[in-house]
Task: inverse folding
């Protein structure tokens, strides 16, 4: 169930997360699991976690998450960008932390 604008897959026990392939400035591909989507103050954000094949079997490892702004073009294509404003970052990070704590996923 999504809360506070999040579309989350956290309650889908045993199901796979959606995988996003992001290309860095050097053209290298990196795989990320889409953990949640958030809409706040007319902006969209995604919470993703890098897929590290070495950590897949280690459930106790702390997962590094990345929060990015999601920008949609007129055709509905999603583009991701860094959150550069510190105040905006704090608001989004706090919203994610609140959801993560309520879902006990840390």
Result:
């Amino acid at each position: 169930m999504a809360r506070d604008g999040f579309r989350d897959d956290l309650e889908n026990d045993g199901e796979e997360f959606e995988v996003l392939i992001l290309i860095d400035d050097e053209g290298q591909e990196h795989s990320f699991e889409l953990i949640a989507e958030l809409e706040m103050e007319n902006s969209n954000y995604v919470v993703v976690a890098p897929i590290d094949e070495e950590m897949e079997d280690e459930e106790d490892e702390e997962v590094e998450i990345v929060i990015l702004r999601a920008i949609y073009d007129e055709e509905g294509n999603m583009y991701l960008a860094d959150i550069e404003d510190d105040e905006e970052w704090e608001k989004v990070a706090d919203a994610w932390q609140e959801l993560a704590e309520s879902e006990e996923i840390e």
Q: What stands out?
A: Confidence is low (pLDDT under 50) at residues 1-13. Residues 7-103 form one domain. The first strand starts at residue 7 and ends at 8. DSSP finds one helix and six strands in the chain.
